[in-house]
Amino acid sequence: MIETHLPDNRPPSRDPLPTPASFHTELLSGAFVMRPRLHVKLTNADRAVVAVWRRWMFGVYGIAAVAVWAVSLLVQAVEQDAQAFAQHRPSTSPCMEWDDAASDTIIRLVQSRSDSDLRQVSDAVSQMRRARRNCEGGWVALACQDYQAIVRGSAPALAAASVCPTTLARDDAVPRQSRHP
Predict the structure, then answer these.
(1) Residue 131, SS3?
(2) Can you give the residue ranges of every domain in the chain?
(3) pTM for the whole thing?
């Protein structure tokens, strides 16, 4: 048997008889013996350092809490804007009809199994968004062109006739003399 030695090369002492737990009342009561806490008296300079450190830590925690709160408000606002934009429909009647037709076209493109149709989906969606913005801004002719481009892209047979107005609504609203300074 290999015997281990203490760092000063003495053999460890051995207790020939094990001590029963009844001799250790702290084991029976569940209270373990701890060394008493050492209380260190702080000087005035140490107290000032601790006070400054506490203020800094409260400040850091406060800034972190405000940052988390601001980020959560920002994320919530972005989600609400995205939902509002997704649910928003053009308010003018010709735009609503064109929007319905273009929406049906996009639905057909998404449901299609053809690779060429699925490649057109992202272009059609971006055209739909642009058309909705144009309708909201009063640019009905531009919106109509975008809506028709969506419908024509999925059904080239419909490309023959244009039902879009020939003038832009915004150009009619601006007086001639204000166009040229």
Answers:
(1) helix
(2) 19-87, 90-179
(3) 0.40
